[in-house]
Input
Amino acid sequence: MPKVVILGAGAIGQLLYWQLQPLTPQLLGRRPTPPRISYQHLNGHIEHQAPRYLQLTQGIDADTDLLIVSVKAHQVTDALLPLLPELPSHCAILLLHNGMGPHLDVAAHTGTRPLLLGTTSQGALRQKLWFVRHTGHGITHIGQYTGVPLSQTIRHSLLRTLPDCHWQQDILTALWQKLAVNCAINPLTALHQCPNGALAAAEFQQQIIGIISELQQVAAAEGQHVKQNELLARINQVINLTANNQSSMLQDCRHHRQTEINAINGYVVVRAAAHGLTAPLNHDLVQRILALSPSSEQFLGH
Ligand code: KPL
Output
């Protein structure tokens, strides 16, 4: 059985910890060890546990086979790079966050170890610091980005243990598709202070088409050919399936937390510039979200 450590005890980190129980994972975080953590299943049932928890200052176990990094995109490099010298050389790393970007920095430091990327549409909400509620079914896609091929044991353990989890040969395509969903839904719901379902109104459709047509050109320049009508259909499907949800960006803005705008629309703008293109609608959304965000947050593309 592979030894799995989850770095980051936010809503998704805690959800994965509970779902991966058959593998007896460990949580790794900054906070002191909590005496008890709790989890509410989709059916309402609540479980409690004294967690297997490691504080970052205690270092990481030398027999770790897989490190799942589930901190926010803007925290990935600062949280992960200092740990790399401590990780055994065979240990695989899985980045699982909204948005894109950190994989480019991280891959420059991970050498031959398997670097996996993933995306999940499972819903999780932290009721309290150490109480997470599973709020919705969702699909998880995982695939390999760089390094020597991942061991079959780790791959099968993940696919068997996580609900609706699939291996993706070309994980970047799945990430661009998810990025399109986030580029449309997150900033628009945050700016209009509305639940996801409000974006089904006709007035938003042209704006959404504009956002994804810029994204599609940038993705094509990166060798990813995603179809605009498929992206639009997927976005509208998520709008309907999550109609009552508040997007993560709306919640971040409401709580005056740093948003993930740099890793979402900001990533499109930065990659557009790398290919001599522009993405003015996405750029405008970045600027408008930053105007609502804590003053320390800046556009990383300048
Ligand atoms: O991932 C999401 C988010 O809120 O960050 C979506 C898919 C938009 C669901 O709310």
